[in-house]
Design a protein that fits this description.
This protein has about 250 residues and is α/β, with parallel strands linked by helices. The protein contains 9 helices and 12 strands.
Length: about 250
């Protein structure tokens, strides 16, 4: 009975504050979706299990034609593409895939074939059989590169509280006033703005910003948050960051 009430309380808190807590290798903000296009059910099932354990969402297609229909209604963040598909082959499908990173996963070993595929739009090529750790590493790298490109294309990012991030120059403006932030403070603010109305747990915050600021630790996080809080308040004349006691932080709308 006690366990039931604890779980009920936990779910209520998560629903109320929009808390996202990771349960896999990819920490759960803006969960990434990967499409597995492979007619081999065994390999496809293995890939799906591997990816879901890492926290990814997974789409499946078993032929080139089915993949075209799937991509007409869904836009995954990355595609794992086999070449020897029934009907429309992987080679024929590849040129029709736009603005989505594609990693070819195939038993074909011909180097000329690899070069041709990379020139046709694939971002990477891994040969079957493959090491799962290597595949996961390549996926993580290409998702990071894709996110960085999107950020560069986007230019600026804002939240309806008067804060503007200039991604290209790494500048911050509060109601038009430039605010100087350290690298760590900028990374924290960027993550909060990219996930509006959601409470970011301390552990999740540390994991996500560690890519840009590996020197930030649990003990120093409180200081960085406090300094960011003060700088935003001094520039805008009000509070911008809410501390949810015992859980984490979120931005406050204007």
């Amino acid at each position: 009975m006690l366990l039931f009430f604890f779980l009920l309380y936990d779910l209520t808190i998560r629903k109320r504050f929009g808390i996202l807590i990771s349960t896999g290798g990819v920490f759960g903000l803006n969960m990434k979706t990967i499409a597995v296009i492979d007619d081999d059910v065994y390999i496809g099932d293995m890939l799906e299990e591997l990816l879901r354990k890492e926290g990814y969402d997974v789409l499946r297609a078993y032929s080139g034609t089915e993949a075209l229909y799937m991509l007409g209604s869904s836009t995954p963040d990355l595609i794992l593409l086999d070449l020897m598909l029934p009907g429309l082959s992987g080679e024929a499908l590849l040129p029709s895939i736009k603005d989505i990173p594609v990693i070819v996963v195939s038993a074909k070993l011909d180097i000329d074939n690899k070069v041709e595929l990379l020139l046709s739009g694939a971002v990477d090529y891994i040969t079957k059989p493959f090491d799962p750790k290597e595949l996961l590493a390549r996926i993580a790298v290409h998702l990071r590169l894709s996110a960085a490109k999107s950020e560069q294309d986007c230019g600026d990012e804002s939240f309806d509280c008067g804060i503007l991030l200039d991604m290209a120059a790494r500048g911050v403006f509060v109601n038009g006033v430039a605010v100087h932030l350290t690298r760590t403070e900028y990374a924290i603010l960027k993550l909060l703005i990219q996930n509006p109305n959601q409470v970011i747990t301390k552990s999740l915050l540390l994991d996500r910003i560690s890519r840009d600021t590996p020197d930030c630790t649990e003990s120093s996080l409180k200081v960085h948050i406090s300094n960011l809080h003060r700088k935003l308040r001094d520039a805008g004349g009000r509070e911008y960051i809410e501390s949810v006691w015992g859980i984490g932080f979120r931005l406050i709308k204007g």
